[in-house]
């Protein structure tokens, strides 16, 4: 790889950051947007990345990752104009780099990790040191996550805190019992290393194919 080629990715990131800065300063629509205004777009773009990963092409994934990166750049451009606590994309990148180096002592330090489980031990230890102010294992979990993903995340944290929550697999007769049954299914997914949210999405994708096939035959 030539010296020019090696520099290209960093130059491309700097170029798009400069483009975002210009858009924020000169586009009358972008000038009015707040962090809160961007939330629906961030959610939408995140789901479009997921769709590209699960059923799209390589070009789709490249494009959707770019759209998601634009959201990060947009939030950073807004933050850079905050009169009291400004930060920009360079501050975001520096913080991220420091965190990733800190959480990979087996890559950047003297620690040893020969298996994925050993890597996870280092990761969790570094993360715990960073989050000393948290008072509960559940602190830091976004409550806006989709319900199945939230349940899976909370079950993992609960297990780490010594709380065994498996739910009941009984056939539900009420909405409360339905919640218990769903929790039991999510617990099964977690125990087997499955992603409950993805499993349901993939089944829904298959259902979509079944419905469209039935409509085509009618």
From TrEMBL:
Signal peptide: none annotated. Residues 34-108 form the NTP pyrophosphohydrolase MazG-like domain. Its EC number is 3.6.1.8. GO terms for molecular function: ATP diphosphatase activity. Keywords: Hydrolase. It is an enzyme of class 3 (hydrolase). PANTHER family: NUCLEOSIDE TRIPHOSPHATE PYROPHOSPHOHYDROLASE. This is Nucleoside triphosphate pyrophosphohydrolase. The gene is mazG.
């Amino acid at each position: 790889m030539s010296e020019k080629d090696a520099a290209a990715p960093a130059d491309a990131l700097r170029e798009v950051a400069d483009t975002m800065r210009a858009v924020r300063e000169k586009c009358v629509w972008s000038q009015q947007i707040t962090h809160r205004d961007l939330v629906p777009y961030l959610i939408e773009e995140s789901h479009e990345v997921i769709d590209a990963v699960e059923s799209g092409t390589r070009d789709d994934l490249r494009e959707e990752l770019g759209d998601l990166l634009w959201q990060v750049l947009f939030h950073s451009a807004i933050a850079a104009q905050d009169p009291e606590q400004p930060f920009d994309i360079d501050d975001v990148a520096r913080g991220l780099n420091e965190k990733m180096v800190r959480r990979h002592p087996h890559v950047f330090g003297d620690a040893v990790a020969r298996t994925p489980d050993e890597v996870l031990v280092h990761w969790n230890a570094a993360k715990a040191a960073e989050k000393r102010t948290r008072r509960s294992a559940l602190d830091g979990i976004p409550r806006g996550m989709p319900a199945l993903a939230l349940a899976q995340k909370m079950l993992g944290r609960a297990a780490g805190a010594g709380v065994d929550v498996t739910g009941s697999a009984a056939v539900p007769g009420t909405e409360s019992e339905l919640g218990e049954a769903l929790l039991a299914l999510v617990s099964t997914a977690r125990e087997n290393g499955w992603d409950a949210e993805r499993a349901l999405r993939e089944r829904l994708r298959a259902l979509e194919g079944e419905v469209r096939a039935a409509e085509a035959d009618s």
